[in-house]
């Protein structure tokens, strides 16, 4: 039996603009998905998942594509999570086949898989990437093969690419595999030296439709030169942001996050609940706050030295959950 874990992430800067070749800086947070893999005697996959949301619920899901979840969460989210598990196992089997030419064909080996996640599903915190990354690491190690975090990141990207029909950037999977803050610009991915960051996350309990939001920005960008300029300006913020990260200037990071949020708002991807949480965080003394991920609903990220527990956000109308989640320097890792 082998267990690996991998962190979720927030975007400090650059979501949406990254779609047009601008850089983005996602950052791993101390909220993890743990995947335990136990080799079976047959070629079946059996998946058990507890607590896939912050509220805590139980889902028993047997078989990769059949089973009845007994849960208070939309079946499409469960189906999506199971799609990532399937794709992760496929990539793990391929990685093992590439490394070994003796022993049984990895395609014929099945697994019992248990997922435990502290990352809410579908909320822009990279839950699917964390499950995919941890799943690939655990399944390969269960079969006696050790991949580097970079190899896990690449395999996880391929898994997401397959599940999302080619609509995947390397941001989530690279960040989850490597930990810390990372720079992603097209296929160029690297880690960035960073100070500890006082990250607070607020979650409105919902999720935006990423495809529709990306399409909306694309249309604005085609229609208005100033929308295209806005996307480029976000790229400039990301470049400034990298310098602020390297010099450990949290006040400057906050200012740049505020600026980034304003531009995302202008591009039409914020929402009332996200804006409320952003303002509540600022009013409570945060250095800066912005939406994270596709927007439309979901999560905001704030930098706040003073708010130890995310209390300021928790009592904001529209905020369902808020928590402190420091930057996580560890990416994927083996768990005892
Ligand atoms: O909501 P998330 O974490 O899946 O992030 C979406 C980020 C976008 O830039 C809007 C889309 C993308 O594929 O990069």
Automatic annotation (TrEMBL):
It is found in: Cytoplasm. Homodimer. NCBIfam families: mevalon_kin. The keyword ATP-binding applies. The keyword Transferase applies. ATP binds at residues 120-130. Catalyzes the phosphorylation of (R)-mevalonate (MVA) to (R)-mevalonate 5-phosphate (MVAP). Functions in the mevalonate (MVA) pathway leading to isopentenyl diphosphate (IPP), a key precursor for the biosynthesis of isoprenoid compounds such as archaeal membrane lipids. This is Mevalonate kinase. Residues 243-309 form the GHMP kinase C-terminal domain. GO terms for biological process: galactose metabolic process; isopentenyl diphosphate biosynthetic process, mevalonate pathway.
